Inverse folding.
């Protein structure tokens, strides 16, 4: 597997210039990728400037007073394509063709949530293959590595992903919790035997906006619901009961409930057998839903004997 052409050209320039910093910022909501290449000030050392042809390649170039330059490219990507192929890719700069995939696995974690896994060792290995091809004399390779170790500071590759919420990661998290960055120092690429980066970077990111509260009925049918019905309702209600309907209100972690069971299409008021267990179970469910942006204050809950729970907001 090979890296996208633009990244490879930057690596080739790096091998000779030794002073470069590359940022790839993936905006998951707009499906836009910003690529920024910082080239340090010319210190008189030989080697190409990777930003020299920035504007000819469709980028915008910014020059700073200290002699450094920043080349900025914008391109697109498709999360649907990521999920179909299982890898991160984007439209190559100056082309309409999709880039070759990067060593970043993509999978669906939940509705509107994706998991990204960057194989750092593969990332480094692919760059090394292009920086130090097999036909390069060993003496030249060692001399280049020695020179780069002396010149490279904190530069490197910074691969950032911005969504609605970063739920879990071992990367660098922004203060607002929306952006995660995977950092790979150039020293790790030059000297992989002594790399400081982890073997893998991972991030679980919610792409879509979370709803502010429960706006429409939702139905649960899982083992916890069935367990509650079996332990708290079955055997304590008349045979043939059709449903239990609970009007519940939660305020400051306190629960108030009014319950009816339905049999022969007629409602009968009753008290839940173990009100403490019922309140605790409801509070737990309420907190889980609130974390997912489905909070509510007052709701109608309908439990069916087959093992389902329907929650309908009343506020």
């Amino acid at each position: 597997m090979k890296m996208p052409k633009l990244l490879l050209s930057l690596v080739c320039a790096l091998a000779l210039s030794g002073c470069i910093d590359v940022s790839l910022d993936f905006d998951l909501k707009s499906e836009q990728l910003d690529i920024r290449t910082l080239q340090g000030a010319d210190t008189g050392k030989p080697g190409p400037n990777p930003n020299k042809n920035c504007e000819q390649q469709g980028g915008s170039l910014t020059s700073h007073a200290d002699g450094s330059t920043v080349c900025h490219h914008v391109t697109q990507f498709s999360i649907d394509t990521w999920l179909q192929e299982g890898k991160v890719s984007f439209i190559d700069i100056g082309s309409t063709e999709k880039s070759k995939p990067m060593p970043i696995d993509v999978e669906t974690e939940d509705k509107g949530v994706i998991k990204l896994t960057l194989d750092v060792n593969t990332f480094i290995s692919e760059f090394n293959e292009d920086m130090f091809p097999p036909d390069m004399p060993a003496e030249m390779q060692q001399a280049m590595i020695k020179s780069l170790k002396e010149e490279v500071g904190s530069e490197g590759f910074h691969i950032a992903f911005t969504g609605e919420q970063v739920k879990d990661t071992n990367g660098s998290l922004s203060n607002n919790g929306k952006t995660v960055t995977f950092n790979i120092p150039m020293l790790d690429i030059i000297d992989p035997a002594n790399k400081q980066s982890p073997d893998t970077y991972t991030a679980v990111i919610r792409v879509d906006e979370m709803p502010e509260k429960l706006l429409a009925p939702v139905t649960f049918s899982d083992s916890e619901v069935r367990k509650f019905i079996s332990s708290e309702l079955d055997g304590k209600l008349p045979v043939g009961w059709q449903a239990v309907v609970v009007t519940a209100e939660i305020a400051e972690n306190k629960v108030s409930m009014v319950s009816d069971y339905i049999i022969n299409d007629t409602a009968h008021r009753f008290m839940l057998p173990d009100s403490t267990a019922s309140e605790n179970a409801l509070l737990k469910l309420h907190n889980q839903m609130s974390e997912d942006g489905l909070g509510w204050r007052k709701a109608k809950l309908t439990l069916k004997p087959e093992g389902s729970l329907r929650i309908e907001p009343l506020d």
About this structure: Residues 5 and 92 are 7 Å apart (CA to CA). The radius of gyration is 28 Å. Residues 43-48 have pLDDT under 50 and may be disordered.
